[in-house]
């Protein structure tokens, strides 16, 4: 059974043409799938709809076989879905440590909460060095790490990540994607990773799905996609 799937999913804004048009997609438990496509292909729209933040016109969204199409974002989160939106959302007024403790709030025992936050510092040593720093003083890379760490603290089963490498230096991107790969391999986390950084995304993912004009135009093992210059040229702009 897929951890996350959609069937005939159609999404659009207002009366406009569909941005996502009858999309079928299944993501196996524990898989890391790269969601690729040029600017405006509909990656963000799809992730937001999966998280319940955009209404769908037609089709179904299933999480672990359960139909969540009409459920609230809160219900989806409770069912194990997490979205890290584009733009490194952290609470800028709070320190790194406070942001992380907020992410672990749902753990009722303070010992468990502390242990979970400590684990995030192990995964992201730069965050530990900046634990007392306010969110607004962090670099782009640090903010993205914090947004990812906060999402991981909720122990999601399925993580939706929207362009985590946007605006990051290559070293910060490599570190972030490396942590993601290790975490997924160790914990069995299922990941759908929307990225403009095709090379980075395909180095982490086992499979790549390319969106164009609202439909899937390629769905292949990551290595095969990375080695297909014609496809890259046609749909990914390089
Ligand atoms: P990018 O990499 O630039 O974020 P994307 O693949 O994530 O691109 P989307 O942001 O999902 O693509 O946009 C898909 C299409 O939907 C675009 O044509 C965009 O203009 C349109 N769109 C996105 N958000 C809205 C909105 N709130 N209202 C109307 N149209 C929108």
Q: Find the structural class using helix and strand composition.
A: alpha/beta
Q: Determine Rg (CA atoms, Å).
A: 18 Å
Examine the coordinates and then state which fold CATH places here, giving the name of the CATH topology of the domain at 4-90 and 159-236: Rossmann fold
CATH architecture of the domain at 4-90 and 159-236: 3-Layer(aba) Sandwich
Ligands present: adenosine-5'-triphosphate
How can the largest sheet be summarized?
Answer: 6 strands, mixed
Shape annotation: globular
Mean pLDDT: 91
Order of helices and strands: EEEHEEHEHHHHEHEHEEHH
Name the strands of the widest sheet in spatial order: 6-7-8-3-9-10
Q: Output the CATH class name of the domain at 4-90 and 159-236.
A: Alpha Beta
Number of helices: 10
CATH superfamily assignment of the domain at 4-90 and 159-236? P-loop containing nucleotide triphosphate hydrolases
Percent of residues in β-strands: 15-25%
GO molecular function: ATP binding
Domain ABC transporter: 4-238
Organism: Glycomyces tritici
Keywords: Amino-acid transport, ATP-binding, Nucleotide-binding, Transport
């Amino acid at each position: 059974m897929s951890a996350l799937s959609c069937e005939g999913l159609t999404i659009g804004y207002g009366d406009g043409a569909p941005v996502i048009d009858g999309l079928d997609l299944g993501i196996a438990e524990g898989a890391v799938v790269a969601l690729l496509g040029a600017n405006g292909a509909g990656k963000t729209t799809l992730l937001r709809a999966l998280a319940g933040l955009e209404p769908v016109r037609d089709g179904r969204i299933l999480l672990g076989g359960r139909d969540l199409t009409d459920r609230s974002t809160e219900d989806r989160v409770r069912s194990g879905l997490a979205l890290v939106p584009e733009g490194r959302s952290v609470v800028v007024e709070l320190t790194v440590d406070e942001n992380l403790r907020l992410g672990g709030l749902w753990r009722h025992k303070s010992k468990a909460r502390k242990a979970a936050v400590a684990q995030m510092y192990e995964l992201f040593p730069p965050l530990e060095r900046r634990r007392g720093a306010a969110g607004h003083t962090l670099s782009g890379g640090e903010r993205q790490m914090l947004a990812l760490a906060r999402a991981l603290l909720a122990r999601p089963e399925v993580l939706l990540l929207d362009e985590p490498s946007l605006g990051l230096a290559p070293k910060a991107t490599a570190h972030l994607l490396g942590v993601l790969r290790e975490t997924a391999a160790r914990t069995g986390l299922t990941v759908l990773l929307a990225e403009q950084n095709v090379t980075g995304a395909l180095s982490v993912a086992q499979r790549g799905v390319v969106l164009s004009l609202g439909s899937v135009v390629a769905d292949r093992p990551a290595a095969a996609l990375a080695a297909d210059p014609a496809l890259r040229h046609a749909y990914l702009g390089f």
